[in-house]
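Look over what follows to help learners.
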Amino acid sequence: MFALIYLNNTKKLMGASDENLPVILRLLADKQENIRGYNFVNQLSNCVYSGIISGQVKLWDSREKEVQIMGTSLKEIERTSNILFTASTHIFIYEQWNKRNQEIITTTHGFSFSAKNAINEVNFGYVDFNDVAALLARQFIQSDANGNSNLTLGYTLLTKQFEYQLLQAGKHVFSNDAESKNALKEMLVNRGFNQVLFPPLPQQKKITYVVERAVSLMPLALQADSILQWVQNYLATDSLLCKTTDCAVTKIEVTEIWTLLYQLQMQIEKVIIHTNTGTIVLTETQAKNIKVPPISLTGLINQKDFLYTITSVNTQNIERKNAFLYQRALLNLQWQNINSIIE
């Protein structure tokens, strides 16, 4: 009997027309999963806060937008409540959902931010989506090794890659998390969010590693040492890159984008040559011009036929003792929840 009543209620939420269903989502900072590599609540709060303080984004007292809260007033609220906007524990997202054959198309209207201090809950206010849309579209998610480097806050919002509870749909207010999950499950059968315009992205990670002077007689280590020596010899002939004739190359630092699309692809983003006199930063194009017989420096880097030590994956610094473990996991395509594999 209960199942029949529940099914009928779900059908009412997204009925025959399946058009313009108003929904309210509730996001909790402490419910965001570590497996994603980021906390969407924290990062959205930080991005919106920077926009408010810089004057790019308007903060209102409520959805009715009767009183604008200026940046200086927000700082005073933070001071008197002894809690920061960037420490928001709750975000409410107001949207409209339209169901199509293979997707749910969403229209985001705005966000409300609040946080709990030692005494009570502090409501910081409401932000219109249109006011912050441009910021979200260009702000990349700051992810640890578990996540991807190619997600923006805007894309993540549109594709709902975060943990949330459906608080209200139409006039129906959900009484608990279980009811919310059941309704979402019913609505999302064989559907994703906005997936025609925003299809799934390939897995992608930003990898930084260093090539250093040999400390062993291993062939790969000796090859790394040879590369550094070849680059040092080249710099002695290029006065534009190295102003002195006695540049001693101590290490080369490489940043690449690794993409998992059918097979592992690696794209050089930046090369930094560390010398006894400073650093030389090269783009991929500039690195191509450095010839390490019989090929270019980028050609040698792409071959990976040398010893290297990973120092960071996305925004997460990697301890030297764990560098090989991350390298092995990445090359073996064990990209999901990689931190738990290492642990």
The mean pLDDT is 90. The longest helix spans residues 219-235. The chain is about 30% helix and 30% strand.
